[in-house]
Amino acid sequence: MTNRILPFITLVFLSTLFSIVIGDDGVAISEQYPLVVSTWPFKEAVRAAWRAVDGNHSAVDAVVEGCSACEELRCDGTVGPGGSPDENGETTIDALIMNGVTMEVGAVAAMRFVKDGIRAAKLVMQHTKHTLLVGEKASAFAIAMGLPGPDNLSSADSIRKWSTWKENHCQPNFWKDVVPSDSCGPYHAKARIDVKEGGCSTRYLMGVAEPRSSLVGPHNHDTISMAVIDKRGHVAVGTSTNGATYKIPGRVGDGPIAGSSAYAVTDSGACVATGDGDIMMRFLPCYQVVESMRLGMEPRLAAKDAISRIARKFPDFLGAVVAINKNGVHAGACHGWTFEYSVRSPATDDVEVFTVLP
Would the annotation count 254 as a binding residue? Predict the structure, then answer.
């Protein structure tokens, strides 16, 4: 009797862990999917992505729907049009989408006059052999492909924010080692001096940069970064942001950089990130996370390892990553702030928000 029961119990246990059905096209579909994960408590964006993927849309299309919802809602004032003015008071858009099955990427950066960042990024992936288009040429491409524009991406809020900053002598800002440092410019490089070391002449800039923690925070330097695993286990990621508030015009952060703000490989998993993009893009933390998981590291350790690599060099940086393996297991790690991320899965009736302590 015991010999008959044990195999049955084992079968039930395994079927609970790996619940699989076969779709109409003969492809195995895991009932642990679909899965939507997003940086921050952007619940409406996650719900939009969930409606798409739960309705049998692809992971790529679900990412577009989720990020687009955040652009329309202007999540945290740092996604989509109408937020994060640069030094000239203008809002520009950065966005990225990546298909973890094909490894195709589409991205736009410093895009003017077009509101739909994530849709523009998808058009780059869909209709070109390129990965990244920038500036006004990205805008012209997006409009030629059918997106609305040209539009003014500023809003009453962004103009008011920019005016207040100008009245405060453009402080704080992202300049360093310039004169004058306490005004709105025009700026000039400080004088350089030569320091002899071992018979060699080394050039040093004078001055001390202001701590970046005074320039970067959840509400002035943020991104929606979203990962979706669809019902067939296919993975895609996407991002959208209007970048750092009061950035130097032309600045591009890590939002449209594959491997930094997001990365996906269907055979391994995905990663989404947010924070100080100028620092984080130097380390490609999401590529690091996905590669670590490919080598067998669990998501929690992969996320922590990627953040620790940055913190060792830049102990004042603010940032966070979420690792999601191919089985849908997820975990976050952060540095410098308390971070939250959102998840919707078949196990929940609505979006669940997870809090990660630094």
Answer: yes
